[in-house]
Amino acid sequence: MAGQITANDLKTKGIGAIEQVVTDGREVIITVRGKQKYVVLPIEEYNQLREFELDAAIQEAKRDIAEGRYHTGSIEEHIARVHHV
């Protein structure tokens, strides 16, 4: 479960405010005026999320290629095609 701190606590206590609520090495949600606004993640978790995101992009590209949703040609042709869409 994510810990939660206010932006004011972060401002006054610094990184210590985050360290106080991190109990399981997971994320900390920072609230601003009572609304959840930011998330602080351990770098390992952030890197894993980025890997998942990149894997999903690779799978999408593979599907596009398999289904013929791609164009070949020069950079100039691509730019002209994109600008005329």
Molecular structure report:
The chain is of the alpha+beta class. The protein has 2 domains: 3-40; 44-83, no CATH class. It has helices at 7-13, 15-21, 43-66, 75-83, and strands at residues 3-6, 28-32, 35-40. A 3-stranded mixed beta sheet has the order 1-2-3. Helix 1 packs across helix 2. The longest helix is centred in the middle third of the chain and has 24 residues, at 43-66. It is elongated.
Outline: elongated
Mean pLDDT: 92
| Count, helices | 4
**String of helices and strands:** EHHEEHH
Estimate percent helicity. 55-70%
The domain count comes to 2
**What is the makeup of the main sheet?**
3 strands, mixed
| Share in β-strands | 15-25%
Our Rg estimate from Cα atoms comes to 21 Å
Indicate the structural class.
alpha+beta
Which characteristics define this entry?
single chain, 85 residues, alpha+beta, 3-stranded mixed β-sheet, 4 helices, elongated
Secondary structure: elements and pairs:
Elements: E1 3-6, H1 7-13, H2 15-21, E2 28-32, E3 35-40, H3 43-66, H4 75-83
Helix pairs in contact: 1-2
Give a short synopsis of this structure.
Helices cover 55% and strands 18% of the residues.
